[in-house]
């Protein structure tokens, strides 16, 4: 059975045989994939092997159990990238690589789903089927920093195994025929899972474990000697550890059920602690509206457009467009589909033209609006063709007005529905793309601002020269409207530059999983309908950042955690655990 422990695949097969819970996994031999014997497809957020799909996050393990270079791959919505786990080197046990998202293809690997354990791993050490010592340590998948004691050993805390975990320990000892055996348990919301079986392994630096282990092994050796050579009297063996006397062992190990319900008996079921976070930097928020094309492309590219043609218009003018998650249907286009679809943009603007001849027109206009004079000519030709045109207009003015009101209402409903759409940026790749786009926009705005200042300076010089010239002639200089407009425009540019510079600083700071303390949202605030497609023309940029622990806050948190542990769980054999 020792050879089984050298292969992770054989270990998992043995666990499956003994019905020990473990993570779902798939084994990929990349050499056979290269020869075309199997099909392996890789995408950013998942892999597919022979039609078996495994979504990220997942962990990639070499089939050789002695190779501890396990890599965790994360999906894009949680930051992407890869975390490399390795044997402890000084104070590090893992390293995060944001640029790595493709799996290794140089051998045979096991890909198993990543199970969340809330930042801890359980190390279990058995001595026979009936004894198991368990310790919790910080998971290397958390931040990769190894916490060590003053003696230089990794910080671990004794924990109590649940009934299901004790059964797992019993089965592993039986399955692998390993009396002294170490294995790892992941405690998840769905119960315990075994992720690794190490074989012969001892607890380090725990006096109580040494005493218990010595007693159990001594009893085993004495029992074996008595069985084989019959040279040691049975009564010399420790009765507590006598394997034959099972009833006595059970009686002294477990209390009687009747005793558990005595009036004086109390049992601690749980410990609940409410703590406030340490000192941290204030959370900050910024909003600004922009119409820059590079930002609008997030909504207006082919992948993000909401095509309205799919929402076919029925004869009664209704449409099936609905907002995702809201459950509210919006009649967006109404009776406008009778217009020529090859024409320009549907603006849905209301014509407020004066004149009686303009009131009878359909109120929905095109991008190139029809002049009122042309409308009058059209109406005059209509009058010549139909002598009863006035009665015709009176009869049809009411339904046309209703149609315009319906179109206006549909426009409002469509705007309400679409403005609920938003794009959130959290992962490093998304924030990096936004960072590059913002830099391009900032450079363009600064160039335009520079030209604008030069233009204002030139107009001011011309204006001053004109003032001097008019003062000599005794004339009064007129106000320069162009200059005031340019000054207002310069103020707008200064605000834009300040907004994009602030966004630059937000996107530039930090690395890795920065979506925890940074979030950018893009929300559409205005749009047009062009060729039956919604085109966003303005968006609201919302940036949120801050809230990180300060140095003092980190010290406060660490000191509080240490004091909490030392108070409730003071030592190896005292406190709540024992």
What would you note in describing this structure?
With about 575 residues, the protein is of the alpha+beta class. Among the domains are: about 25-115, D-amino Acid Aminotransferase, Chain A, domain 1, CATH 3.30.470.20; about 285-290 and about 425-470 and about 480-550, no CATH class; about 335-420, no CATH class. The chain has helices at about 10-15, 30-35, 165-175, 205-230, 245-255, 295-300, 370-385, 390-420, 430-475, 480-510, 550-570; strands spanning about 25-30, 40, 45-50, 50-55, 60, 70-75, 80-90, 90-95, 110-115, 120-125, 130-140, 155-160, 180-190, 190-200, 285-290, 345-350, 365, 425, 520-530, 535-545. Strand 2 (about 40) and strand 3 (about 45-50) form a beta hairpin. Helix 9 (about 430-475) runs antiparallel to helix 10 (about 480-510). The model is unreliable at about 240-245 and about 305-400 (pLDDT under 50).
Range of strand content: 15-25%
Helical segment tally?
11
Given as residue ranges, the uncertain stretches (5+ residues, pLDDT < 50) are 239-243, 304-401
Q: Give the strand order, joined by hyphens, for the main sheet.
A: 1-9-5-6-7-8
Distance between the termini: 34 Å
Describe the main β-sheet briefly: 6 strands, antiparallel
- CA radius of gyration is 38 Å
Q: How confident is the prediction overall: mean pLDDT?
A: 76
Please give the number of β-strands. Answer: 20
Q: Into which percent range does the helicity of residues fall?
A: 25-40%
Structural class: alpha+beta
Shape: elongated
